[in-house]
Design goal:
59% helix, 2 helices, 0% strand, 66 residues, elongated, single chain
């Protein structure tokens, strides 16, 4: 995201992507407790991304379909 450091929508999208990765890993863990999450820090990265998006633009809204 080097070109989008000040773009709240880009940070919001990044947060949604990492949230989806976290949910995917959690689903796999429920199915197979021996599964090793591919993105163990995904929920933290998602949270940091959402906080950054809101700090850049408190009025940021998700796009339709996100």
């Amino acid at each position: 995201m080097p070109a989008n450091q000040e773009n709240a929508e880009a940070w919001l999208l990044r947060g949604n992507v990492y949230l989806s990765l976290y949910e995917y890993d959690q689903k796999k863990l429920k199915q197979d407790p021996a599964y090793t999450p591919r993105y163990p820090d995904a929920i933290m990265i998602a949270n940091e991304s959402f906080v950054k998006a809101l700090s850049l633009n408190p009025e940021v809204k998700p796009m339709t379909g996100m």
